[in-house]
Protein backbone atom coordinates (compact mmCIF):
# COMPACT_ATOMS: atom_id res chain seq x y z
CA UNK A 1 0.00 0.00 0.00
CA UNK A 2 0.95 3.67 -0.30
CA UNK A 3 1.64 5.79 2.78
CA UNK A 4 3.33 9.04 3.76
CA UNK A 5 6.36 8.49 5.96
CA UNK A 6 8.88 10.80 7.58
CA UNK A 7 12.46 9.65 7.16
CA UNK A 8 14.02 12.13 9.57
CA UNK A 9 13.16 15.17 11.67
CA UNK A 10 12.80 18.22 9.46
CA UNK A 11 10.64 20.22 7.07
CA UNK A 12 7.88 19.02 4.74
CA UNK A 13 10.52 17.76 2.28
CA UNK A 14 11.35 14.94 4.72
CA UNK A 15 7.89 13.46 4.04
CA UNK A 16 7.79 10.83 1.30
CA UNK A 17 4.90 9.07 -0.44
CA UNK A 18 6.16 5.49 -0.61
CA UNK A 19 5.18 1.82 -0.73
CA UNK A 20 4.77 0.24 2.69
CA UNK A 21 3.94 -3.35 3.74
CA UNK A 22 0.23 -4.12 4.08
CA UNK A 23 -0.79 -3.84 7.77
CA UNK A 24 -1.77 -7.10 9.47
CA UNK A 25 -4.95 -7.36 11.49
CA UNK A 26 -3.82 -8.39 14.96
CA UNK A 27 -5.91 -9.36 18.05
CA UNK A 28 -8.01 -6.46 19.35
CA UNK A 29 -7.47 -4.53 16.10
CA UNK A 30 -9.56 -3.72 13.05
CA UNK A 31 -8.16 -3.35 9.52
CA UNK A 32 -9.57 -0.23 7.88
CA UNK A 33 -9.57 1.01 4.30
CA UNK A 34 -8.93 4.73 4.79
CA UNK A 35 -11.16 7.16 2.89
CA UNK A 36 -10.02 10.39 4.57
CA UNK A 37 -7.14 11.24 6.91
CA UNK A 38 -7.13 14.46 8.93
CA UNK A 39 -4.15 16.83 9.03
CA UNK A 40 -3.33 18.21 12.48
CA UNK A 41 -0.66 20.53 13.82
CA UNK A 42 0.31 17.58 15.95
CA UNK A 43 1.56 15.87 12.75
CA UNK A 44 3.78 18.86 12.04
CA UNK A 45 5.06 18.60 15.63
CA UNK A 46 5.91 14.93 15.12
CA UNK A 47 7.73 15.76 11.90
CA UNK A 48 9.67 18.46 13.74
CA UNK A 49 10.73 15.99 16.44
CA UNK A 50 8.47 17.24 19.25
CA UNK A 51 6.85 13.81 19.77
CA UNK A 52 7.05 10.12 18.88
CA UNK A 53 10.84 10.23 19.11
CA UNK A 54 10.82 6.73 20.59
CA UNK A 55 9.32 5.39 17.32
CA UNK A 56 12.04 4.64 14.76
CA UNK A 57 12.11 6.35 11.34
CA UNK A 58 10.83 5.90 8.74
CA UNK A 59 7.38 6.09 10.34
CA UNK A 60 3.94 6.75 8.91
CA UNK A 61 2.53 10.13 9.98
CA UNK A 62 -1.07 11.01 10.89
CA UNK A 63 -3.35 10.05 13.76
CA UNK A 64 -6.91 10.56 12.54
CA UNK A 65 -9.26 9.47 9.83
CA UNK A 66 -12.38 7.69 8.62
CA UNK A 67 -12.98 4.69 6.39
CA UNK A 68 -14.49 1.23 6.06
CA UNK A 69 -13.74 -1.97 8.01
CA UNK A 70 -11.96 -4.60 5.88
CA UNK A 71 -11.17 -7.27 8.51
CA UNK A 72 -11.66 -7.89 12.22
CA UNK A 73 -8.99 -9.12 14.63
CA UNK A 74 -9.52 -11.82 17.22
CA UNK A 75 -11.50 -10.67 20.26
CA UNK A 76 -13.24 -7.75 18.55
CA UNK A 77 -17.02 -8.07 18.85
CA UNK A 78 -18.37 -4.58 18.32
CA UNK A 79 -17.55 -4.09 14.60
CA UNK A 80 -18.25 -6.03 11.41
CA UNK A 81 -16.72 -5.96 7.94
CA UNK A 82 -18.19 -3.06 5.96
CA UNK A 83 -18.87 -0.79 8.97
CA UNK A 84 -17.96 2.85 8.45
CA UNK A 85 -15.69 4.01 11.27
CA UNK A 86 -13.62 7.00 12.40
CA UNK A 87 -10.74 7.36 14.86
CA UNK A 88 -8.22 9.62 16.53
CA UNK A 89 -4.82 9.01 18.15
CA UNK A 90 -4.00 6.08 15.86
CA UNK A 91 -0.43 6.79 14.68
CA UNK A 92 0.03 5.74 11.03
CA UNK A 93 -3.11 7.25 9.51
CA UNK A 94 -1.51 8.92 6.42
CA UNK A 95 -1.94 5.62 4.57
CA UNK A 96 -4.29 3.64 2.37
CA UNK A 97 -4.96 1.08 5.10
CA UNK A 98 -4.35 0.86 8.84
CA UNK A 99 -4.78 -1.70 11.60
CA UNK A 100 -6.31 0.23 14.50
CA UNK A 101 -7.17 -0.80 18.10
CA UNK A 102 -10.93 -1.37 18.24
CA UNK A 103 -11.13 0.85 21.34
CA UNK A 104 -10.01 3.83 19.21
CA UNK A 105 -12.85 3.40 16.70
CA UNK A 106 -16.36 4.79 16.57
CA UNK A 107 -19.10 3.94 14.05
CA UNK A 108 -20.06 6.76 11.68
CA UNK A 109 -23.76 7.36 10.98
CA UNK A 110 -24.93 6.99 7.34
CA UNK A 111 -25.82 10.68 7.12
CA UNK A 112 -22.22 11.78 7.77
CA UNK A 113 -19.65 11.40 5.02
CA UNK A 114 -16.10 10.18 5.62
CA UNK A 115 -14.43 13.56 5.18
CA UNK A 116 -16.75 15.25 7.64
CA UNK A 117 -16.29 12.45 10.18
CA UNK A 118 -12.49 12.60 9.86
CA UNK A 119 -12.63 16.38 10.32
CA UNK A 120 -14.12 16.34 13.81
CA UNK A 121 -12.24 13.54 15.51
CA UNK A 122 -9.33 15.58 16.87
CA UNK A 123 -10.52 19.16 16.52
CA UNK A 124 -14.20 18.50 17.35
CA UNK A 125 -13.45 16.45 20.48
CA UNK A 126 -10.93 19.10 21.48
CA UNK A 127 -13.41 21.95 20.98
CA UNK A 128 -16.25 20.21 22.81
CA UNK A 129 -13.94 19.33 25.71
CA UNK A 130 -12.68 22.93 25.96
CA UNK A 131 -16.18 24.45 26.12
CA UNK A 132 -17.61 21.87 28.55
CA UNK A 133 -15.17 20.02 30.83
CA UNK A 134 -12.27 22.44 30.87
CA UNK A 135 -14.38 25.58 31.19
CA UNK A 136 -18.12 25.09 31.23
CA UNK A 137 -19.31 28.00 29.07
CA UNK A 138 -22.43 29.62 30.54
CA UNK A 139 -25.08 31.72 28.77
CA UNK A 140 -23.78 35.27 28.43
CA UNK A 141 -20.10 34.37 28.85
CA UNK A 142 -17.68 36.07 26.50
CA UNK A 143 -14.82 34.01 25.11
CA UNK A 144 -11.70 35.04 23.22
CA UNK A 145 -10.92 32.39 20.60
CA UNK A 146 -7.51 32.55 18.92
CA UNK A 147 -7.00 31.27 15.35
CA UNK A 148 -10.78 31.60 15.09
CA UNK A 149 -10.88 30.60 11.41
CA UNK A 150 -8.79 27.45 11.97
CA UNK A 151 -10.07 23.92 12.48
CA UNK A 152 -10.38 24.14 16.26
CA UNK A 153 -11.46 27.80 16.19
CA UNK A 154 -14.47 27.34 13.89
CA UNK A 155 -15.81 24.35 15.83
CA UNK A 156 -15.12 25.93 19.23
CA UNK A 157 -16.89 29.15 18.22
CA UNK A 158 -20.01 27.23 17.21
CA UNK A 159 -20.05 25.14 20.40
CA UNK A 160 -19.64 28.25 22.57
CA UNK A 161 -22.56 29.85 20.69
CA UNK A 162 -24.69 26.69 21.17
CA UNK A 163 -24.11 27.04 24.93
CA UNK A 164 -25.24 30.67 24.88
CA UNK A 165 -21.80 32.23 24.96
CA UNK A 166 -20.43 35.05 22.83
CA UNK A 167 -17.17 34.99 20.90
CA UNK A 168 -14.47 37.49 20.08
CA UNK A 169 -12.20 35.86 17.51
CA UNK A 170 -8.57 36.63 16.73
CA UNK A 171 -7.17 35.82 13.28
CA UNK A 172 -3.97 36.69 11.42
CA UNK A 173 -5.40 38.23 8.25
CA UNK A 174 -8.37 40.20 6.95
CA UNK A 175 -9.50 37.42 4.62
CA UNK A 176 -10.29 35.21 7.63
CA UNK A 177 -12.74 37.68 9.21
CA UNK A 178 -15.77 36.54 7.19
CA UNK A 179 -14.98 32.87 7.85
CA UNK A 180 -14.84 33.40 11.64
CA UNK A 181 -17.98 35.56 11.62
CA UNK A 182 -19.86 32.96 9.60
CA UNK A 183 -19.18 30.45 12.42
CA UNK A 184 -20.68 32.89 14.94
CA UNK A 185 -17.90 35.19 16.14
CA UNK A 186 -19.43 38.55 17.06
CA UNK A 187 -16.21 40.53 16.64
CA UNK A 188 -13.04 39.47 14.88
CA UNK A 189 -9.68 41.09 15.62
CA UNK A 190 -6.87 40.87 13.06
CA UNK A 191 -3.49 40.63 14.77
CA UNK A 192 -0.20 38.76 14.48
CA UNK A 193 1.90 40.75 16.94
CA UNK A 194 0.13 39.92 20.18
CA UNK A 195 -1.44 43.38 20.39
CA UNK A 196 -5.09 42.49 20.62
CA UNK A 197 -5.76 42.93 24.38
CA UNK A 198 -6.76 46.62 24.22
CA UNK A 199 -9.35 45.83 21.56
CA UNK A 200 -10.72 42.96 23.65
CA UNK A 201 -10.97 45.21 26.71
CA UNK A 202 -12.75 47.89 24.66
CA UNK A 203 -15.21 45.34 23.29
CA UNK A 204 -15.98 44.07 26.80
CA UNK A 205 -16.47 47.46 28.47
CA UNK A 206 -13.03 47.26 30.11
CA UNK A 207 -13.78 44.01 31.95
CA UNK A 208 -12.13 41.41 29.73
CA UNK A 209 -13.41 37.99 28.75
CA UNK A 210 -14.52 35.09 30.94
CA UNK A 211 -12.33 32.63 29.10
CA UNK A 212 -9.46 32.69 26.62
CA UNK A 213 -8.72 29.74 24.33
CA UNK A 214 -5.13 30.15 23.19
CA UNK A 215 -3.13 27.58 21.22
CA UNK A 216 -1.32 30.19 19.15
CA UNK A 217 2.18 30.21 20.59
CA UNK A 218 4.27 32.57 22.72
CA UNK A 219 3.29 35.75 20.82
CA UNK A 220 -0.26 35.71 22.11
CA UNK A 221 0.34 34.61 25.71
CA UNK A 222 0.75 37.97 27.46
CA UNK A 223 -2.06 39.57 25.46
CA UNK A 224 -4.33 36.69 26.45
CA UNK A 225 -3.46 37.23 30.14
CA UNK A 226 -4.28 40.93 29.80
CA UNK A 227 -7.58 40.21 28.04
CA UNK A 228 -9.04 37.99 30.82
CA UNK A 229 -11.36 39.42 33.45
CA UNK A 230 -10.94 38.88 37.19
CA UNK A 231 -11.04 35.18 38.09
CA UNK A 232 -11.41 34.26 34.43
CA UNK A 233 -10.02 31.09 32.85
CA UNK A 234 -7.05 30.67 30.54
CA UNK A 235 -7.29 27.51 28.43
CA UNK A 236 -3.84 27.01 26.94
CA UNK A 237 -3.62 24.24 24.39
CA UNK A 238 -0.91 24.71 21.79
CA UNK A 239 2.16 22.56 22.40
CA UNK A 240 3.25 22.62 18.75
CA UNK A 241 3.09 26.38 18.32
CA UNK A 242 4.87 26.80 21.65
CA UNK A 243 4.25 28.05 25.16
CA UNK A 244 5.35 30.96 27.32
CA UNK A 245 8.23 29.10 28.96
CA UNK A 246 8.46 28.63 32.75
CA UNK A 247 5.76 30.54 34.63
CA UNK A 248 5.99 32.04 38.09
CA UNK A 249 2.58 31.20 39.54
CA UNK A 250 2.67 34.36 41.65
CA UNK A 251 3.01 36.47 38.52
CA UNK A 252 -0.41 35.38 37.29
CA UNK A 253 -2.86 38.28 37.57
CA UNK A 254 -6.47 38.67 38.70
CA UNK A 255 -6.85 35.27 40.42
CA UNK A 256 -7.18 33.66 37.02
CA UNK A 257 -7.29 29.91 36.55
CA UNK A 258 -4.89 28.60 33.95
CA UNK A 259 -4.29 25.13 32.56
CA UNK A 260 -3.12 23.02 29.66
CA UNK A 261 -6.16 21.32 28.18
CA UNK A 262 -5.96 17.99 26.38
CA UNK A 263 -9.19 16.16 25.64
CA UNK A 264 -7.63 12.77 26.24
CA UNK A 265 -7.35 13.53 29.98
CA UNK A 266 -11.13 13.78 30.30
CA UNK A 267 -12.21 11.57 27.42
CA UNK A 268 -9.96 8.68 28.35
CA UNK A 269 -12.08 5.55 27.91
CA UNK A 270 -13.61 4.00 24.79
CA UNK A 271 -17.09 4.65 26.27
CA UNK A 272 -16.44 8.35 26.87
CA UNK A 273 -14.75 8.68 23.47
CA UNK A 274 -17.73 7.14 21.68
CA UNK A 275 -20.32 9.10 23.70
CA UNK A 276 -18.59 12.43 23.00
CA UNK A 277 -18.08 11.60 19.33
CA UNK A 278 -21.74 10.62 18.96
CA UNK A 279 -22.69 13.96 20.46
CA UNK A 280 -20.60 15.70 17.77
CA UNK A 281 -22.21 13.52 15.09
CA UNK A 282 -25.69 14.39 16.44
CA UNK A 283 -24.92 18.11 16.28
CA UNK A 284 -23.77 17.66 12.67
CA UNK A 285 -26.90 15.67 11.75
CA UNK A 286 -29.15 18.30 13.35
CA UNK A 287 -27.33 21.06 11.49
CA UNK A 288 -26.20 22.87 14.65
CA UNK A 289 -22.50 22.14 13.97
CA UNK A 290 -21.17 22.91 10.50
CA UNK A 291 -17.86 21.41 9.49
CA UNK A 292 -15.74 23.56 7.25
CA UNK A 293 -13.18 21.68 5.13
CA UNK A 294 -10.70 24.24 3.87
CA UNK A 295 -8.55 21.92 1.78
CA UNK A 296 -8.70 18.40 0.33
CA UNK A 297 -5.35 17.02 -0.86
CA UNK A 298 -4.42 13.69 -2.44
CA UNK A 299 -2.48 11.62 0.12
CA UNK A 300 0.59 12.00 -2.11
CA UNK A 301 0.46 15.78 -1.47
CA UNK A 302 0.59 15.58 2.34
CA UNK A 303 3.79 17.65 2.39
CA UNK A 304 1.97 20.48 0.59
CA UNK A 305 -0.87 20.28 3.13
CA UNK A 306 1.69 20.65 5.95
CA UNK A 307 3.34 23.63 4.27
CA UNK A 308 -0.03 25.30 3.65
CA UNK A 309 -1.17 24.78 7.26
CA UNK A 310 2.04 26.27 8.65
CA UNK A 311 1.81 29.24 6.25
CA UNK A 312 -1.31 30.53 8.08
CA UNK A 313 -3.08 30.73 4.72
CA UNK A 314 -5.66 27.99 5.30
CA UNK A 315 -8.98 27.95 7.12
CA UNK A 316 -11.00 25.07 8.60
CA UNK A 317 -9.91 21.45 8.37
CA UNK A 318 -7.38 19.99 5.93
CA UNK A 319 -8.05 16.45 4.69
CA UNK A 320 -5.95 13.90 2.78
CA UNK A 321 -7.60 11.39 0.50
CA UNK A 322 -5.76 8.13 -0.27
N1 LIG B 1 -4.30 20.30 23.56
C1 LIG B 1 -5.00 19.63 22.69
O1 LIG B 1 -5.73 18.71 23.02
C2 LIG B 1 -4.92 20.04 21.24
C3 LIG B 1 -5.73 19.41 20.31
C4 LIG B 1 -5.69 19.85 18.97
C5 LIG B 1 -4.81 20.86 18.63
N2 LIG B 1 -3.99 21.40 19.58
C6 LIG B 1 -3.08 22.51 19.25
O2 LIG B 1 -3.86 23.50 18.64
C7 LIG B 1 -3.10 24.23 17.73
C8 LIG B 1 -3.87 24.23 16.42
O3 LIG B 1 -3.79 22.94 15.87
P1 LIG B 1 -4.83 22.27 14.90
O4 LIG B 1 -4.18 21.09 14.29
O5 LIG B 1 -6.12 22.02 15.58
O6 LIG B 1 -5.02 23.33 13.74
P2 LIG B 1 -6.03 24.54 13.53
O7 LIG B 1 -6.94 24.72 14.67
O8 LIG B 1 -6.62 24.37 12.19
O9 LIG B 1 -5.00 25.72 13.56
C9 LIG B 1 -4.58 26.38 12.43
C10 LIG B 1 -4.46 27.84 12.81
O10 LIG B 1 -3.24 28.04 13.53
C11 LIG B 1 -2.77 29.33 13.26
N3 LIG B 1 -1.35 29.24 12.89
C12 LIG B 1 -0.82 28.57 11.85
N4 LIG B 1 0.51 28.72 11.82
C13 LIG B 1 0.82 29.50 12.85
C14 LIG B 1 2.02 30.02 13.36
N5 LIG B 1 3.19 29.74 12.77
N6 LIG B 1 1.99 30.80 14.45
C15 LIG B 1 0.82 31.07 15.06
N7 LIG B 1 -0.38 30.61 14.60
C16 LIG B 1 -0.36 29.83 13.53
C17 LIG B 1 -3.58 29.87 12.09
O11 LIG B 1 -4.46 30.86 12.60
P3 LIG B 1 -4.14 32.44 12.46
O12 LIG B 1 -3.13 32.52 11.33
O13 LIG B 1 -5.43 33.06 12.10
O14 LIG B 1 -3.60 32.85 13.78
C18 LIG B 1 -4.39 28.68 11.59
O15 LIG B 1 -5.69 29.04 11.19
C19 LIG B 1 -1.73 23.56 17.68
O16 LIG B 1 -0.84 24.27 18.52
C20 LIG B 1 -2.00 22.18 18.27
O17 LIG B 1 -0.87 21.65 18.89
C21 LIG B 1 -4.03 21.01 20.87
What does this structure look like?
It comes from Sinorhizobium mexicanum. Pfam families: ADH_N (PF08240), ADH_zinc_N (PF00107). The protein is of the alpha/beta class and 322 residues long. It has two domains: 2-120 and 291-321, Medium-chain alcohol dehydrogenases, catalytic domain (Quinone Oxidoreductase, Chain A, domain 1, Alpha-Beta Complex), CATH 3.90.180; 126-263, Rossmann fold (3-Layer(aba) Sandwich). It is built from ten helices and 16 strands. The strands form three sheets. Strands 3, 5, 6, 7, 8, 15 and 16 form a seven-stranded mixed β-sheet that branches. A six-stranded parallel β-sheet has the order 11-10-9-12-13-14, with helices on both faces. Strands 2-1-4 form a three-stranded antiparallel β-sheet, with no helix packed on it. Helix 5 (177-182) links the parallel strand 10 and strand 11 (187-190). It is globular. 48% of the residues are buried. The structure holds NADP nicotinamide-adenine-dinucleotide phosphate (NAP). NADP nicotinamide-adenine-dinucleotide phosphate binds at residues 40-42, 122-123, 126, 147, 149-153, 171-172, 176, 215-217, 237-241, 261-263, 310, 312.
